[in-house]
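Dear H.,

Thanks for agreeing to be a second pair of eyes. The structure we're designing against is below in token form, covering all 470 positions.
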């Protein structure tokens, strides 16, 4: 079958401008004649290996992480096959650029580094026509949608429409790590305004310059959005990403039994963290029922992890009440206990009988946890006295500093190892460099949600990426 039939009639400049089909200088001589490309490309044909050598050389010339991010996004916008070849073959180097931690800075600067739109933008002004907006998307076999409303981007807070960098980056990981073809992935920004005064005052901000939509009007917009997704893309899984606490739990409970959906911050983080807890037992010995978990942060990530730990403990024969008492939370006002009257509804299942405790250090001393989990967005929330206390109470303290980006991590790998004489079992939300600690070579691992992404089949990330037929 000829290339012309494969590409469904696309020719010439139109073909070169389609990132899903464009091969750039890798188009062969016969393809250049058949597809009207003769004269539109430099005369020498380059293999994809040669193209890869060129882009790596240019990537390494960039002096900052943000410049590297911009370069990779530009490559993705013109040649997705080459982009994914680069990412897949250099995953450890590229992943911190296309996603956390660099994507956090990219979102903060999104309006200033904007090149061309990706995905769909649906705003609060689009009530009554969301279905028609979805139908503007040129590809109809969408299988995975990542949507955000930008209210809680990583640990950076309300970034409004700048949060589009998160769905774009997360779906790049779906292809690179889980084998989902890029043509089947759709990033969506649900722009309902922002309460970030710096963005509202920024003339280069690209979102609606108005306060966030709340209440029934917000719920009605999301309802229309979900129903429209079901009609236009009935085979798609809808992933909610980086919604604020006030909406994340409600939306998950409302739609989890009505459509194929999940919340990555609540459920994805939970799956990866529980896996990390099980992995830590290989080093500490014992079983999950022997562990006691203390969280810094009682938002959607923390409560999601707690809920999944409870389910895992129940599967091991622990009663639900006892399972919940193995999970304790510290929020901005101290230990979550039954006597407090200021608790949000999602915290109540973990409000145990205990005397009030004001600080995380006091909670560590009182509860003697075996695993400390940071999901607070509070940089350096795990201070030296806290980490040292964990090391004194446990031969191998398990310390997960999961807040993103790196600047928001509760502690660094170097701190966790240094303050425990190299005994800590450490994971983080963003990558840290390997460390030598007390004659051990410690390689801290990022506990990130790409480790659980729904994918096509095991090992598919190792296969070369080819331009996709439309």
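And this is the sequence the design step returned. I haven't edited it by hand at all.
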């Amino acid at each position: 079958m000829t290339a012309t039939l494969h590409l469904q009639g696309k020719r010439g400049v139109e073909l070169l401008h389609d990132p899903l089909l464009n091969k750039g200088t890798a188009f062969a001589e016969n393809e250049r004649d058949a597809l009207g490309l003769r004269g539109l490309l430099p005369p020498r044909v380059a293999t994809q290996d040669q193209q890869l050598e060129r882009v790596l050389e240019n990537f390494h010339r960039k002096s900052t992480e943000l410049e590297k991010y911009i370069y990779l996004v530009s490559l993705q916008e013109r040649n997705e096959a080459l982009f994914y070849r680069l990412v897949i073959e250099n995953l450890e180097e590229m992943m911190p650029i296309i996603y956390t931690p660099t994507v956090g800075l990219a979102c903060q600067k999104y309006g200033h580094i904007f090149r061309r739109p990706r995905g769909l933008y649906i705003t609060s002004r689009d009530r009554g026509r969301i279905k028609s907006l979805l139908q503007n998307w040129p590809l109809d076999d969408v299988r995975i949608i990542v949507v955000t409303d930008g209210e809680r981007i990583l640990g950076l807070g309300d970034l409004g429409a700048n949060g589009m960098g998160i769905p774009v980056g997360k779906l790049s990981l779906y292809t690179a790590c889980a084998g989902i073809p890029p043509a089947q992935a759709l990033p969506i920004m649900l722009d309902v305004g922002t309460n970030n005064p710096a963005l509202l005052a920024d003339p280069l901000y690209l979102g609606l310059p108005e306060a966030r939509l709340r209440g029934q009007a917000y719920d009605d917009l999301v309802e229309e959005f979900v129903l429209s997704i079901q009609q236009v893309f009935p085979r798609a899984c809808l992933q909610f990403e980086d919604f604020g606490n006030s909406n994340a739990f409600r939306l998950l409970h409302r739609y989890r039994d009505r459509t194929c959906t999940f919340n990555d911050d609540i459920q994805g983080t939970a799956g990866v963290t529980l896996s990390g807890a099980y992995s830590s037992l290989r080093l500490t010995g014992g079983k999950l029922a022997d562990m006691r978990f203390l969280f810094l942060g009682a938002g959607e990530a923390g409560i999601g992890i707690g809920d999944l730990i409870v389910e895992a403990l129940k599967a091991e024969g622990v009663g639900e009440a006892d399972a919940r008492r193995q999970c304790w939370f510290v929020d901005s006002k101290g230990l979550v206990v039954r006597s407090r009257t200021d608790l949000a509804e999602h915290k109540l299942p973990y409000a145990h009988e205990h005397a009030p405790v004001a600080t995380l250090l006091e909670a560590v001393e009182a509860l003697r946890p075996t695993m400390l989990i940071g999901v607070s967005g509070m940089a350096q929330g795990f201070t030296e006295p806290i980490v040292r206390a964990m090391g004194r109470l446990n031969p191998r303290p398990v310390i997960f500093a999961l807040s993103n980006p790196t600047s928001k991590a509760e502690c660094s790998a170097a701190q966790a190892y240094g303050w425990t004489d190299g005994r800590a079992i450490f994971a983080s939300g963003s990558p840290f460099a390997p460390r030598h600690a007390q004659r051990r070579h410690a390689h801290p691992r990022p506990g990130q949600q790409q480790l659980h992404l729904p994918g096509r089949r095991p090992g598919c990330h190792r296969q070369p990426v080819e331009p996709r037929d439309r």
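Two observations from my side: The two ends are 15 Å apart (CA to CA). The longest strand covers residues 185-191.

Warmly,
E.
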